[in-house]
Write a structure and sequence with these properties.
single chain; about 260 residues; alpha+beta; 10 helices; about 15% strand
Length: about 260
């Protein structure tokens, strides 16, 4: 796959492909088992050139396991999601054996109360890839004989502006990007659930303030199907990236 899109966007980080595999690939970094790890750090490592692999038992973060499509890890692991994402220990029943981390006893306050967390959870398209390995691979390592299932771009606001503009290039349809609230990694799940849809929108993400500290301040993500990524790559030389406006922006930003 050509790297034309990354070059014309002047991307600091490589596009990251997420491959769902039946067997564990060799040569990819693995986080130690039994230690909580964050999918955001895996994406960032891959964007900097290091392939990373994880799987259900290895992904100790319940939200991350959900985000990767490993089923409803919230329920399967007895995770106190409804309290963690809302009011914390204040509304947790005394008899509930699940403990919140000390720094989370006040809750993340993303939702007004546990009942609204329940409503949000009902909208999650839980995947069924629990038996798969998820490989995060920088574009320079993608094999010639297989395309990634999902592609993630880490972009600054100028680059996001260009990609949003390019989203309507072929169809003329204005609504080509969605920005649902979710944990930082769960844009992967959103796109994964729509991978068979030829008109699947791109998903903007990394809004989770609990994990923003892991990213540079000016970076958000744009997650998409491989087919959409291939279209953007093909269109790049004749899109707004070839316009005087983009060239002037590049000059002003000194890219």
């Amino acid at each position: 796959m050509s790297n034309t899109l990354a070059e014309m966007l002047f991307m600091e980080y490589e596009p990251v492909g997420v491959f769902y595999l039946d067997e564990k690939p060799s040569g990819a970094f693995e986080f130690p088992e039994g230690k909580r790890n964050c999918v955001v750090s895996m994406i960032l490592m891959a964007a900097k050139g290091q392939p990373v692999v994880t799987w259900d038992e290895n992904c100790m973060c319940a939200g991350g396991a959900v985000g990767l499509g490993f089923g409803n890890a919230f329920e399967r692991r007895g995770h106190p999601t409804r309290y963690l994402l809302s009011t914390g220990a204040a509304d947790m029943p005394p008899e509930d054996p699940r403990m919140l981390p000390p720094h989370m006893v006040g809750g993340e306050r993303f939702f007004r109360c546990p009942e609204i967390v329940d409503r949000w959870k009902e909208q999650i398209p839980y995947g069924d890839d629990r038996d798969k390995y998820a490989l995060f691979a920088p574009q320079s390592t993608w094999p010639d004989d297989r395309s990634p299932d999902v592609v993630i771009l880490l972009l600054n606001p100028d680059q996001i502006s260009a990609v949003v503009s390019m989203g309507s290039f072929r169809s003329g349809e204005a609504l080509q990007v969605i920005a649902p609230f979710s944990a930082a990694c769960q844009s992967i799940l959103r796109v994964r659930s729509m991978v068979e849809d030829p008109e699947a929108p791109m998903v903007m993400g990394m809004f989770d303030v609990a994990q923003r500290h892991q990213l540079p301040a000016n970076v958000l993500s744009m997650t998409m199907t491989y087919e959409r990524f291939a279209e953007l790559t093909e269109d790049a030389p004749i899109s707004c990236l070839s316009s005087r406006s983009w060239q002037e922006l590049v000059r002003v930003r000194k890219l």
